[in-house]
């Protein structure tokens, strides 16, 4: 959205306040409402999930939203209830519109569209809304005139915050790129967040916000991941002592380093070195199930004991399982009790879990594939109409636990789970979660097959997990052979229009790995040479991808932006658009539900797109 164009239109527009109306939705109730005019919806209490045709958001994430005239508004209240004030108005734009607009047609559409405002505007806007509502209900002409004046001030505040957010987004991206380069070049220095920000000429809040948006974790967690990766290389390829390696990667205290290494890998540095030396020919890189192997196996690299469809299945399963458990530390059962390694250490369970709650969508998919139905799951923040029917129906039966960014801990506690699966997205509330039930933190970017094996073993279903992996790998092998038989390896770009720019998923992204590493498709240069899982590019750079095919992830949050792009001449300059090789896919299916049910369907969609 061009905030500058929106400012210009509000400057020239004439408008009248139609009504200022307070309201509330009872706890866990639902309000269906069709907006008779354009309006601003201001959250004044409680929380709710709010949906319209072009927006889907939590009132806690965006306390203020603009709702277009005619929109069907769906407000689903939380157990806390929901209170709001609607500021309803009619606006008339000049004709013709101002010539200084960057894109007049798009600007007018944005002026009338639904959108959310930054959370930073919430407190001030709420206070202004209360005052305007109080003045409006007195119905005095002078007070009504004052309300109109205050609405201008209200809009001015919103636009100012939106302008700051747009500028902050661009600054955040630049700061993150600079920080990552700086960390990789100077990982052994004794960093603090404050010293890193000082070296880069930025501030800690900007770094925290930028890293959370790009990677889903904090800057210092990113630094730890760089140090752990470097330590793995040194453990495997050098003869240095563990103390020497610890100091080289930035940890003078070798005892602390060993504890940290085990926390993040599930295995001690000494055990890691021993396992790599003993099994180097057949272990995948980084001791993780790797989808990047060029062999017939998508999990274990070529060599002794590889996982190959042409080998005896039982033998392959045992080899795969032993390798996986060796890499991950594995579940250990002692006197009926389970010791389960995870990113936060080792979890002690008195028995196998029966009531599992999941705070990341992907684990709902993985558990359902194993035949285990979670008692509750977070919901995807975008529409899920493209999910396979069997997955969608099962999800519909579960208790909803908010979103992965903001889980509903009150409802989670009410379910009385005996295990909660979470990721770094819940790092900010991990203490509260582990106070409700034993919490197991997993790496959300881990190949789903490794996560499935963990969950299979945890539930006594490792045989079923291996059967699922076997079937999926066979599906991949069939498609890879068909692509090879066709004799072409097209360049495919996986993109998602978002926030006024385009997110280009790189070879490090978990779904993009399927395209490039597992199926052997070619990645655009901009997607291949990047350290993160994605990068943001402007529409003007799309033609530089030189992609034969364009895979576009679409959902309710970006459908309008995508439609606008498709009417732009810059979009039509792209090779794939010229040749009719653009395919739209469902965002939730491709990147939300990362497990065997969703990913098997993704493979089918890739086959349909490439082998028509």
Automatic annotation (TrEMBL):
Statement: the UniProt record of this protein carries the keyword Nucleus: no
SUPFAM superfamilies attached to this UniProt entry: Helical backbone' metal receptor, Homeodomain-like
Family: Belongs to the bacterial solute-binding protein 8 family.
Classification via InterPro entries: ABC_transptr_periplasmic_BD, Bact_iron-sidero_bind, Homeodomain-like_sf, HTH_AraC, HTH_AraC-typ_CS, Tscrpt_reg_AraC-type_HTH
Region (Disordered): 270-298
Protein name: AraC family transcriptional regulator
Lineage of the species this protein comes from: Bacteria, Bacillati, Bacillota, Bacilli, Bacillales
Sequence intervals crossing the membrane: none
PROSITE patterns membership: FE_B12_PBP, HTH_ARAC_FAMILY_1, HTH_ARAC_FAMILY_2
Main localization (coarse): other
Annotated localization: Cell envelope
Residue ranges of domain Fe/B12 periplasmic-binding in the record: 355-612
UniProt keyword terms in alphabetical order: DNA-binding, Signal, Transcription, Transcription regulation, Transport
């Amino acid at each position: 959205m061009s905030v500058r164009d929106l400012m210009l239109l509000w400057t020239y527009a004439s408008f009248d306040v139609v009504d200022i109306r307070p309201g509330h939705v009872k706890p866990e109730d639902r309000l269906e409402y069709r907006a008779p005019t354009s309006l601003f919806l201001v959250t004044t209490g409680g929380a709710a999930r709010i949906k319209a045709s072009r927006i889907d958001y939590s009132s806690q994430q965006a306390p203020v939203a603009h709702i277009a005239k005619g929109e069907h508004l769906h407000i689903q209240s939380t157990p806390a209830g929901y209170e709001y004030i609607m500021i309803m108005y009619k606006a008339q734009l000049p004709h013709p519109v101002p010539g200084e607009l960057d894109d007049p047609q798009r600007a007018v559409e944005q002026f009338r569209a639904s959108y959310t405002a930054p959370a930073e505007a919430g407190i001030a806007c709420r206070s202004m809304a209360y005052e305007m509502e109080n003045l409006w209900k007195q119905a005095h002409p002078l007070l009504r005139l004052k309300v109109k004046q205050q609405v201008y001030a209200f809009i001015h505040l919103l636009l100012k915050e939106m302008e700051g957010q747009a500028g902050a987004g661009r600054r955040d991206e630049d700061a993150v790129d600079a920080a990552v380069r700086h960390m990789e070049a100077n990982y052994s220095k004794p960093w603090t967040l404050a010293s890193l920000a000082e070296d880069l000429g930025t501030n800690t809040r900007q770094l925290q916000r930028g890293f959370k948006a790009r990677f889903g974790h904090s800057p210092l967690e990113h630094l730890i991941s760089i140090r752990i990766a470097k330590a793995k290389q040194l453990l495997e390829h050098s003869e240095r002592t563990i103390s020497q390696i610890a100091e080289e990667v930035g940890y003078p205290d070798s005892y602390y380093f060993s504890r940290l290494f085990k926390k993040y890998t599930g295995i001690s540095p000494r055990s890691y070195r021993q396992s790599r030396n003993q099994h180097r020919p057949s272990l995948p890189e980084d001791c993780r199930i790797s989808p990047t192997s060029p062999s017939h196996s998508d999990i274990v690299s070529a060599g002794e004991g590889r996982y190959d469809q042409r080998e005896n299945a039982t033998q392959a399963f045992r080899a795969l399982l032993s390798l996986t458990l060796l890499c991950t530390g594995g579940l250990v059962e002692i006197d009926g009790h389970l010791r389960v390694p995870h990113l936060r250490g080792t979890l002690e369970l008195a028995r196998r879990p029966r009531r599992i709650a999941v705070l990341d969508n992907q684990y709902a998919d993985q558990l359902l594939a194993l035949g285990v139905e979670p008692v509750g799951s977070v919901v995807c923040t975008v529409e899920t109409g493209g999910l396979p029917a069997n997955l969608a129906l099962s999800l519909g039966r579960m208790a909803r636990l908010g979103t992965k960014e903001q889980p509903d801990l009150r409802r989670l506690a009410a379910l009385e789970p005996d295990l909660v699966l979470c990721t770094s997205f819940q790092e900010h509330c991990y203490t509260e979660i582990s106070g409700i039930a034993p919490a197991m933190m997993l790496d959300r970017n881990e190949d789903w097959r490794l996560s499935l094996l963990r969950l299979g073993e945890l539930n006594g279903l490792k045989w079923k997990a291996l059967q699922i992996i076997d079937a999926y790998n066979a599906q991949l092998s069939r498609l890879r052979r068909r692509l090879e038989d066709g004799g072409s390896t097209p360049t495919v770009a996986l993109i998602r229009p978002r926030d006024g720019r385009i997110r280009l998923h790189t070879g490090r992204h978990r779904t993009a790995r399927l395209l490039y590493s597992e199926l052997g498709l070619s990645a655009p240069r901009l997607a291949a040479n990047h350290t993160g899982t994605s990068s943001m590019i402007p529409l003007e750079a799309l033609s530089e991808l030189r992609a034969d095919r364009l895979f576009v992830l679409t959902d309710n949050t970006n459908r309008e932006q995508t439609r606008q792009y498709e009417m732009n001449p810059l979009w039509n300059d792209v090779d794939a658009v010229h040749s009719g090789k653009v395919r739209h896919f469902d965002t939730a299916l491709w990147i939300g539900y990362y497990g065997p049910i969703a990913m098997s369907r993704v493979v089918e969609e890739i086959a349909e797109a490439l082998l028509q």
